[in-house]
Please model this.
Amino acid sequence: MIKTTAAICVAPNVPLEIDTLTVDGPGPGEVLVEIVASGLCHTDLTALEGVNASSVYPLIPGHEGAGRVVEVGLGVTTLCIDDHVIPLYGPECGECSMCRSKRTNLCWTIKPTRDRGVMPDGTSRFMRGNKPVHHFMGTSTLSRYTVVPEIALAKIRKDAPLDKVCLFGCGVTTGVGAALAHVRPGDKVAVFGLGGIGVNIIQGARIAGASRIIGIDISSAKTELATSYGMTDFIRPGPDAPDPVVAIRDLTGGGVDVAFECTGVLGVMRQSLDCCVPAWGVSVLLGVEPSGSELSFPPVQVRYGKSIVGSYFGGIKGRTGLPGLIDRFMEGEIDLDRQITHRLQLHEVNEGFHLMKQGKSVRSVVMFE
Ligand SMILES: [Zn+2]
Ligand SMILES: [Zn+2]
Model:
């Protein structure tokens, strides 16, 4: 058992508390990780605001971290002390039907316990006094030390800077991965929502060879960054502005080949389908909708060839796919520096979420050393 400093969400809509907790050593198949850096992501905010169905309070948020292996539990064979790792909220067990399939990067082996905020054996490794504190997304990277199942850790090259590649734990992989999976050279692309995911879709679309990249957002705060990543046109919808679907059709002579939806707003999802070119346009949904909501659209659009697909973690299998993506960052193809707008210490974490809510940050990274 060791001590850790962590951000604790005791209940929705109250500031995170910073406190010292104890962490139990790793159980069988588990690994104790020392987190070096952790980015703040909007999904953490949903837990803080009480709108994330997989949040059991009190909990330690954080799912975009990078760190080093400190101790391995019984039966761990693929990781050693001092290995550099990125915790994965989507594991890769390598054995289930999803992992053996080439059709998905999902692995639901430990989803039931992960969504209850505990390790696969049904218990938590974190204790505050004599009360357990729950894990969040199976990662809880806003703790100096965290325990993660071996199957939910991607081993990465040691020369990759942990204070930057933590972003591969969520935002960069989700955005760049989705673009690389769906955009072909010469494609015209629309990206609805220029947050942390949207700007990385733009970056990925440029890498994939898109000829035109149209960003759509109700705020113009991220246009400079988006333009530096390859955005060619910007549309800001509003009461006095033309319908963005009409504007996109006008700009592209009929529609885009691929549209990415990163807002989770049902009306915007519909726009992302409507703005696609008939016959082969693809609408890729990434934004998380309010739970229980349903989307309606004219079936004729799909019958004639458009499709609606989704993307989770950029379609990347965490343990086997992430190292290759990090190679592309190390070779200079993917930028992280320009999107890290703030670096914070753990005691400043509430300020980090405040910046996120105000739209003043792209990525804030909490540093543990
Ligand atoms: Zn995230
Ligand atoms: Zn699996």
Observations:
- Residues 158 and 197 are 26 Å apart (CA to CA).
